[in-house]
Amino acid sequence: MPKISTSRAVTIGVAAIVLVALLWLAWPSAVPVDLATVGRSAMEVTVDEEARTRVRHVYTVSAPLTGTVLRSGREVGDQVKANETIVAIMKPTAPSFHDPRLHEELGAALSAADAAVVLAEAERRRIEAALTYSKLQLGRFQKLAAAGTVSRSALDKATADAQTNEAALASAVAELQVRRNERASAAARLQNPADSAVSGGDDGAGCCIQIRAPATGQVLKLLQESESVVQAGTPLIQVGDASDLEVVADVLSTDAVQVRENATVHIDGWGGAPIQGRVKRVEPAGFLKVSALGIEEQRVRTIVDLTEPPARWRSLGHDYRVIVHIVTWTGDKVLTVPIGALFRVNDNWAVFKNVGGRAQTTQIAVGHRNNRVAEVLSGLSQGDQVALHPSDRVSEGARITQRE
To answer: What are the C-alpha distances in Å from 128 to residues 122, 125, 159, 168, 317?
Structure first.
């Protein structure tokens, strides 16, 4: 058997070492991944939505008639008492300006009213004179009748003349009053807005209407803060009891069908500790709402009552933003897998299961899901490890290892 020289043996050894090194460098290394263990735990499925708080009973005070509302002396947060606290004061509006033709017409009407008053006064003086004469005549006839020198019919005629003139005088006095009132009406219509200042101060004494709070609570919003002319029915101020709050959430109609009355609600995202609530009502009618992205969505208003003591949410106020989590399903000791481990294989859900340090594609059946975990109906067992958020380096049979 021929002998191998030392130099050749060294060459073969070096070549073998290089070959092993190349194989080692070319051999794929294990992909580091985050591994999660499948286990059993309590699980809740919730409908999550932005919501807002509101006072349960908000009273909007409106102007009872057209007029000038004075500047409000109230501020948001002021305490008010039902039927006692004055929340708004209104006074009559000044007359409007006249165009030149209307002004001339009203001036002529006033002059005519003045003349009618003069005519009525003259008529009253004439009838007074006639009444004085008829009374003198009646006195003479009464004396003559007592002496038997005039007939009974003449005395009756004198009596009738006196009574007729008395009635005519009463009519003339009433006519004069009518003419004076017509003259006052014409003068009022001719009044200039600059001369129409209404007597009385901001306290509303005498001239103005004082509007009082309809309920006990606080001022929530000043809808008309400065003095201005308003029409009847214009909202002026909102009042309500800020300690009597409820939560209003506009949920998608597809989620609303899963929400039931008296369902538990977790409330957070308001700046304080999470608080609990309960669904009071899911309104039977939906409405169209356009999202911030311009998408038209059908929403359903859901009302939530706060079940925590008021001391827990005292910092909340009217129209504050909160996040509600409405519970639609709960389960105990549910076999769950993290949502981050799921991916699609055709129309089925699947995960990469860790089997002896290699990734094995495993299709599973998923039941209820929330934003953290999914219920496993089949395909996995308690204690199995799955890869979270697998990258494109993870494939069937790839070596994987726990990320440090």
So the answer is: 10, 5, 16, 9, 77
CATH code for 61-92+216-240?
2.40.50.100
- Mean pLDDT across 204-224: 84
The alpha carbon dihedral of 40, 41, 42, 46 has a sign of negative
Name the residue ranges covered by the structural domains of the chain.
31-42+332-402, 47-55+242-330, 61-92+216-240, 100-195
Q: Give dist(CA 92, CA 352) in Å, integer.
A: 80
Q: Which two tokens stand for residue 62?
A: 């409106």
Q: Which two tokens stand for residue 127?
A: 């009838």
What predicted TM-score, i.e. pTM, was given to this entire model?
0.67
CATH 3.65.10.10 corresponds to the domain 47-55+242-330: no
Task: Single out the residue of 240, 225, 201 nearest to residue 72, CA to CA.
Answer: 225
Look at residue 288 and give its three-state secondary structure. strand
User: Is the distance from CB of 207 to CB of 200 less than 8 angstroms?
Assistant: yes
* 278-292 tens-digit pLDDT: 999 999 999 999 988
Q: Which helix (H) or strand (E) holds 162?
A: helix 152-189
Comparing 193 with 141, which gets the higher pLDDT? 141
Could you tell me whether strands 67-69 and 400-402 are parallel, antiparallel, or unpaired per DSSP bridges?
unpaired
Residue 21: its pLDDT value, please?
A: 64
